[in-house]
Structure formats: C-alpha cells, structure tokens
Amino acid sequence: EDMGLQRYDAAKQRAKARHRKTNQRQGRSQPSRSNRSRPAPSTPNVQKATEEFRAKFERVRAEIGKAIVGHEEIVEGVLTCLFVGGHVLLEGVPGLGKTYLIRSLSQALHLDFSRIQFTPDLMPADIIGTNVIMEDQSTGRREFQFQRGPLFAQMVLADEINRATPKTQSALLEAMQEHTVTVAGHRYQLEEPFFVMATQNPIEQEGTYPLPEAQLDRFFFKLVVQYSSRSEIAEILNRTTAGRSPKIEQIMTGEEIIGAQRLVKRVVMAPHVQDYAVRCTLATHPEGEFATDMTNRFIRWGRLRAGHRPSRWRPRCGRCWRAGSTRPSPTYSASSCRPCDTACC
Fold first, then answer.
1. At a CB cut-off of 8 Å and minimum separation 6, what does 192 contact?
2. Which end of the chain has fewer CB atoms within 10 angstroms, the N or the C?
3. pLDDT block averages, 10 residues each, the chain of length 345
4. Model-level pTM?
5. In angstroms, how far is CA 300 from the centroid of its own chain?
C-alpha cells in the first residue's frame, strides 16, 4: 500500500509539472492559492464612462443643431436608435429636412457613410452587390468576383425607401437583423457599428409602396417629422440666405459608438420597471391576461400587436435615455419596493 501511495503521489507531481510547463509555453501564469479566492478585477469606472457618454451625446446633438433648426425630439430619437444598436425610419412630406438631418449626423460621426436613393426600377443587386466576371490580365483566366454594393457601409441612408418595390425593400431584411449579406451562397459580415436610417413619404402620395410588416418590424423607431413653427422657419431663412454653410465637426468614432452601446446595456433597470414593460407588451395581445377592452375590440393582428422585439427594445430605449440624461436618478431598493398589481408603476 505504501508503494502504491508513493507511485500515486509521484504521478500527481509529474502531472502538475507538465501542466505548469504547458501554461508557460502558452504565456499563461499559474494562479496561486491566495489569488484563487480573490474576486475578479473591478470593472472600469462606470460613473466616469457615463459622464463621458453624456458629454459626447450633447456634443453630437449640438453639432447637428448647427444645421438643423428645431426637431429636437426627432434628433434625440435618431441618436437613441444609434446608441442602442437599432434602426430608425423617418416619415414626412418632402422638404422637411429628413435627408439633411441624417447627412448632418454622418458628418458628426467618423463612420463610413453611404446613401441609396430608392426608385421604382431599383433592383436588390443594386443595393447588396453582385458577382461579375473578371479577367486576370497576366494569365487570361476568368473568374467571378463579388462587387460590393452601397449597403456595405457603417451608416446607410435609405432615402425614400417606399419608392421602391417590396422586392427591393426586402433586400435590407438580413442586413438590418443579422448585419450580414448573403450572395450566391457566400455570407459577408458588415462592419460594426451598422446603422440604417430610412426616410419615406406618406403612403397617401402616388408612386409609393407600403413597407411590408417584416420590414417595419426591423426599425427601432418610426419618427414622424412635422412642419416647422413660425420662429423656426424664420431662423432657417436667416441661415440659408446669409451665404454661410455650417461646419460640423466629427465627435465620435466607430469604436466609441460601440463602447457607448455596451455602456447602455449595463444600465440597471429595476425589476418592477422591467415587468411594467412586459405588461405593456402583453396589453396589446387581444384576449390576453392584460388586454384592455379597446385591445379586444380593435386589435386582431398586425403592427399594433407587439411581439418579443418591442419587449426588448423598450427597456433598451429607457436605458439609453437614463444614461444620456443629466437629470437626477431615483434610488431603488429591493427591500422597500412593492410592485403593484396594476399597470401604474
């Protein structure tokens, strides 16, 4: 028995020695027993990162304000979609500055920008790209080579998206949801961050095609751009007739935007607030537990009946507003909070 124990101890020591040598070759250090019980290193200062995010948020909004007069809620909604990783749809009659707003945002961000003007004769290959035959000048060999379309950018402006046919509109579905493009069996990854901003004219006008239900579901917000007020129109005239063009400075890079998106996800949400968002979604389901009389009367199916995607987007929107707001945040204590049974939290 003693000989067996000695052999077992020797084999155990040899195994430990081999393990240490393997870690040294791979550049890993063997943690000591005292370090194993210690907690993981602390994360970066969240408060400092939040303050920097608020400052960048206000600076980007101020740079857009150099070109856009009014429409503060529209600008804030577009920035919210950007920092939560969603897409935005702007609807309004022509001439209200929808395209100019998005172009001003592209100038304030250091991102690869691309614009697609949707027309009735636009084809899906005109957006995502296509395979063309290329000939090697040295060998004379011909082969198919993929030529990327304007969709391969970090910030894409889909101008007047409802002017194109549903076939062309559906070419954006995979890119907006999975940030990838599949052509001839090959899958291409889009560069992050990827942000689609689309504009459309009201459906009542001629030459427009209503967006399919699956296409509308990909957008985080649908923002309706209204007419400017009397004072705003006067300020627009003063700016445009003076002969001066605003100079918009670049504030954020792609890496900073990705960092801001990660910061927004770390914002704490109280359980009863999250449950309220869930109940708001279930309230749109007819014959459901939280359905109201109006829901049971007027809703059967379609865009008014929220699914899982709005359930995730609503809390993310609240987190972004909380992180980018300078207003004081109320404290939350799990022991002192009593979630109520009605939707009044």
1. 154, 179, 254, 258
2. N
3. 56 68 55 44 64 86 85 86 87 82 85 87 88 81 84 88 84 85 86 88 72 78 85 83 79 86 81 81 78 74 60 73 62 42 38
4. 0.69
5. 29
